[in-house]
Structures are given as C-alpha cells and as structure tokens.
Protein 1
Amino acid sequence: GQNIDQPTEMTATEGAIVQINCTYQTSGFNGLFWYQQHAGEAPTFLSYNVLDGLEEKGRFSSFLSRSKGYSYLLLKELQMKDSASYLCAVRGELTGGGNKLTFGTGTQLKVEL
Amino acid sequence: DSGVTQTPKHLITATGQRVTLRCSPRSGDLSVYWYQQSLDQGLQFLIQYYNGEERAKGNILERFSAQQFPDLHSELNLSSLELGDSALYFCASSVEDGTGGTYEQYFGPGTRLTVT
C-alpha cells in the first residue's frame, strides 16, 4: 500500500524560510512531486525528485532521501501569495506502465505579515 | 493556464442522477488522469488513460466510468449519484511515450459537483 504523511498546517512570516516535510511508505518508488494548490483552484507543479539530493528552482527547493522515505520542500523569501496548500505526491511501483500518483493530504501554509 | 480544459465548471444535481464531466488535455499530451478531491480525503486518483486505453486504475467506484476518445479528450461518467460524491473533480494530462517513464501532470481547473 501507499502512505504519505505531511503536517496539516504551518504558519510562517513574510520574508522568512519554511520547510515542509513529507514522509512516504510506498510499494516501489519512481519519483516524488510537489504541487501547490490555492483554495478552489487546480494544483500546479512545483518540483520533481527521483534521485537523492536537492533540486533548486528559484525560491523553491526540494530534497529527497530515498533510503529514509523522506522529502522536504523549502520555500525562501516567503510572500503572501505563497499561502496555499502544498501537496506531496509519490509515484510508486510501475504497474502496467501507468503513471499513478498517490497524494498526501497536503500542508496548508499560512504566510503572515 | 495549464492548457487543460474541463467542462462544466460547476454542476448541481440530485441524488440518483447521472452526469458526464469532460476534459481536453494539453496539445500533444496522450495521457489523461481523473482525480476526486473532497474536503476530508484530499486528492484521490481515479483512473488514467493513455492514447485511448485504460492504463492505471485507482479507487474508482463501479458507479463511475471513464473513456478517452480518438481526439484524446476524455469523459468521466458518474451515475447513481450520492451525497458523498459531492467533490471537485480534476482532470490532468501529461506527456508520455508509453515506456513507463515518470512525467509531471498538468491539472485542469476542475468541475465542482454538488449532489443535493
């Protein structure tokens, strides 16, 4: 089976740095995604990790440790518009070539002045 | 704008009814995915189609069915609707070459279904 855990809520201050953690237990592993979702809107792709290490993309970075079943999303220089839900999603074992993603329930980030 | 379109945006219907949700993928994308998002369960994968064929299946109820047409648009059919089916239904698409690689998915704006 698949199990993905993220904190439910986090609060941070504008201009600060925040780290959102994700731990997973899946049958096989073929990549981990982070998505951002504003309330009532579609999730938008932020980052993808398949190998261990850090991937940096502007103000956003994502880290993966496959041996620990662990990832984090790092957001720097926080802005008010970063207030959103952040979803961790894992592609587990390849079954018939399908690209099935299992999503965590998301971390609701609130950025305050 | 992800390039994925979904219609309708909102749908209100009664229990026991049947509805059809429509999705057009990004130009060039062969794979279409359907997800259900309710307040208490997060984003749940329902089903994936690749170039007209079913490729992966999630926790899709037997009352739900989907298909992908030759022009690559997809429809999700929900029948015998229950109050608990009220949710946001998202369609996503991705570039895939059929070799099993992992690709990011682009989500449409969603259809908000309310069953009364």
Protein 2
Amino acid sequence: KNQVEQSPQSLIILEGKNCTLQCNYTVSPFSNLRWYKQDTGRGPVSLTIMTFSENTKSNGRYTATLDADTKQSSLHITASQLSDSASYICVVSARTGANNLFFGTGTRLTVIP
Amino acid sequence: DSGVTQTPKHLITATGQRVTLRCSPRSGDLSVYWYQQSLDQGLQFLIQYYNGEERAKGNILERFSAQQFPDLHSELNLSSLELGDSALYFCASSVEGQGEYNEQFFGPGTRLTVL
C-alpha cells in the first residue's frame, strides 16, 4: 500500500535554532518527492522537488535530502525564523496511475522567540 | 500568489444545505484538483479534472460533485451538508493532467463551516 508518514507530528523550537523533519514513504514505483510549506489557513507552497537520482536540494535555509534506498527524506531548516512557523507536508509521486500523488499528514512547526 | 483563485473565501451554512465552491486555475493550466482538509488533518484528494473531463477520483463522497467548464474554471458542489463537512477546501491547478513532474499550484482555499 502506498503511504507517506511524517514525523514528528509537531515541533516547537527557539528562533535561530535548526531543526529536521522526517518523511518515510512506501510509494512505488517512485517518481519524485516534494516538500510543501503550508501557512495556517493558506494553500501549500512547494519548497523543493527531488527525483530518484537526487539526494539533496536546497532552497535558501531549507535543505531536503532523499535516500531512495531506504525510502526516507528529511527537510532541514537552518537558523529558523518566526515566519517558518507552518505545516510542512511531504508529497510523493508515483510514476504510474492517474491518482499518483500521496500526501503525508504534515509536521506542524512552531518557532518561538 | 499562486495564480489560482477560489471563491468564496469563507462560507457558513446549515446542515442539509447545498453550496458551490468555485476555482479558477492559473492561466494556461488545463488540470484542476480539489482537496479537503479537515481541522488538523492532512490534505485529502477528492477529484481531478483535465480539460473538462474527469481524470481521477479520490475519496469523494456521493453527496459531492464537481465539473470543469469550457473556460477551465471548476466548481465543487457539496449537498446535504453535514457537520463533518466543515473543512478547508483547496483547489490546485497544473499544466498537465498527469505526469511525474506535474507540479500543482494551490489556491488560498475556501473555509466551509456547517452549523
């Protein structure tokens, strides 16, 4: 069964600190993995996309890693800011099927001053 | 701003009623997707349309229906509303209907409250 699991469910960190969010998936055949940022009450916005052959990708203070062998991805946030407070959603695409997107339930990150 | 627009932003109605949510995709995008997000829950895929035709169906209730019009805007109709239908409803659009790298751009959502 195709699934995407994220951990932790929620996280509170101090402003300026780093954090790492995890995503494990069982989607097959794997195509790509995206991380989205969703501010409260707003639509998700794509942060990064990684394909099978990529194992790291950065977008400013956000760095995503992918281990296609263990089917794990992480999103590392460096020098966190208050504006990083949001839900971070991992979405995995399969290479086949019309309904080929599988969503994690997200990690809710709160950055406090 | 993703370029996807949704109206209304907020909707409050009573149980048993029917509502229509509207979505306009980004210019040039042929595909529209609808998602439901209940409080503190993940995004649940409902249905996808591509160039006017239904392309994929997810966990959409029989009380819900959608369509995509010739100008590519889409409407999601929710009928016989129940308290549990209260949620954020997101529309997303993409250029293609399918494809490995087919990025979806999300609208701001419609918050539906059923009293």
Protein 3
Amino acid sequence: DTGVSQDPRHKITKRGQNVTFRCDPISEHNRLYWYRQTLGQGPEFLTYFQNEAQLEKSRLLSDRFSAERPKGSFSTLEIQRTEQGDSAMYLCASSPWGSGRTNTEAFFGQGTRLTVV
Amino acid sequence: KQEVTQIPAALSVPEGENLVLNCSFTDSAIYNLQWFRQDPGKGLTSLLLIQSSQREQTSGRLNASLDKSSGRSTLYIAASQPGDSATYLCAVETSGSRLTFGEGTQLTVNP
C-alpha cells in the first residue's frame, strides 16, 4: 500500500450532471476525510468517517452532496446536479485513530480536479 | 470558530537562504498541528506533525515549532533549494477530527 489513492484525477462535466469520486485510504487507517480546495485557498473540511460511520458533515456539504464508506474501506463522494460553483479540487485524506493513539497524522491523496462547464 | 492565518502569503528567496514561515491560530485547544507541502495541481504532502504536548519537530532541513498558548507555529527551512518551491500549508486539528487550514505561503526559491 503506497498511500491514499483517488480516482479519477480529473473530471470535466456539464452543469446539471451527476459525478462520483472514489477514494481508497491507507489500508490500516480507520478515519477517512473529504476536503474541497478552490484556487488560492486552503482545503475546507466537508465530512469524515470513522470506519463506516459518517461522524461529521460541514455546512458546505449541501443536500446535493453525499458521501459513503459502506464497508469501512474505500469511500465515494457524489455530487448531484452539478453547478459551476462546484468546480474545485476534491481531496481525500486518511489517518489512524483510536483509543490511546497519539499520532493522528493525516495523509492526503492527489485529489480529483472537477471542472463544471 | 478556529481560524488559521499564514504569513507571508508569498515569499521569494535566493537559493541557500534560511527562511521562516509563520502560522497563527485563534483557538489554542488544538489536538495537533501539521505542516504540508503542495505542488501546483497536486495533493498535499505531510511534512511534520507536532502534537499539542510537543514544542517542536525536525525532519532533515525542516524544523517546526509550536507555542500553543500563544497560538503560533513556525516552519524553519534551512539552506533552501529550488526544489523547495511550493505552497506550504499549516493546519490544526481540533477535538481529534477535522483539520482547519490556513491559506498557505507560496514559496519560490530562485537558483
């Protein structure tokens, strides 16, 4: 396992279409995070999972966005009825977490660049 | 609400210079602080993580310090090289969950 993997790397879609991104975390990491980054800004938190449970969602995650992690391994992020404002880099990260852990270093994937035209 | 500020927004230095990047945060109740590097169009590469009980971490030419009570961290890069050119992001973890990022410092090291 060489790190967090995201697919696709780039996605161009027409406004109104649905898109789905996949993230494969580092295998022993039980936490998985989704962030969104627009040009010139730092990443903004969207949501995170501990195993298969989605524990927190940002207000940025409108009802057009849904994320799943069905078996506590890979995760998908779906955007329905895409808008031009959804154009951004979508980043996935994973980290170890659990009782007694002190090192919760987050590792990021290469991101999926979404362009809505 | 946690807010993270990075100064300067951009920095251009000649090769070989030592430099310091600054990060400040408003809520000192952090779990840890992490420095990342981001190359254009790429994801984030973790550089250093400092837990809230620590004051500094070192990796090669990089040294990061943390003063939790004053809400500040610095990233020191020794003997800078053109390959160090990238955007450097500081992020704090609050309550063991989400990371809150600054907007980054864009570093250019000129040969």
